[in-house]
Design goal:
Length: 175
């Protein structure tokens, strides 16, 4: 059976707490939408779409020696994507190592018949889905960047559990 897979950076507990605080600040400021639970916070590097068991085995073999750089990112700007109603915390500046890693994983997917990513990589962590438009007075939120450091990359599976979508780590590459 095929699985819905993606590569992501996990979010450390300290960053999760800062993101939860920001999420409640945004909710109080009038953003209505589904709040993403902290356990689902992640930064997508490459979305692979529906992947069969044999495609997954081949992917894991190809990427067995994936090198994980030190990743350090300042999340300092809000994004709003109207169609899915996504409110996300993103980065004005994409560190070179992070951009290269995302490109490598996206190209690998494309070259092997998995989901092609057609848009430029914009690192972000989704905080709300199905949200109404951002209010203009949120232009200066967050007041302080949330600094994210990561030493690992995870291959994640998205499953529909009884309480909604859940993400589980299938494989972790450590620096
Ligand atoms: P997100 O990164 O903007 O939150 C698992 O579904 C993850 O893959 C989610 O984090 C989601 O968005 C991202 N994702 C889902 N569908 C996608 C698509 N068609 N293209 C790119 N990323 C997608």
């Amino acid at each position: 059976m095929a699985q819905r897979l993606f590569f992501a950076l996990p979010v450390a507990r300290t960053s999760q707490l800062a993101l939860l605080k920001l999420q409640s600040q945004l909710a109080q400021a009038g953003i209505h939408g589904r709040m993403i639970p902290a356990t689902n916070f992640h930064l997508t590097l490459a979305f692979l779409g529906s992947v069969t068991a044999s495609q997954k085995d081949a992917l894991l073999a190809r990427l067995a020696d994936l090198t994980v750089p030190d990743l350090h990112l300042e999340l300092d700007t809000l994004h709003y994507w109207a169609k899915p109603g996504i409110v996300a915390l993103g980065a004005r500046r994409t560190p070179i190592a992070l951009g290269q890693l995302a490109t490598q994983l996206q190209q690998d997917a494309y070259q092997h018949g998995l989901h092609p990513t057609r848009h430029a990589f914009r690192p972000h962590i989704t905080l709300f889905r199905g949200a109404s438009a951002l209010l203009p007075d949120l232009a200066h939120v967050p007041e302080q960047p949330i600094v994210m450091t990561s030493h690992s990359v995870e291959l994640m599976v998205s499953v529909n559990g009884p309480a909604g979508v859940e993400y589980h780590c299938l494989k972790r590459w450590q620096r």
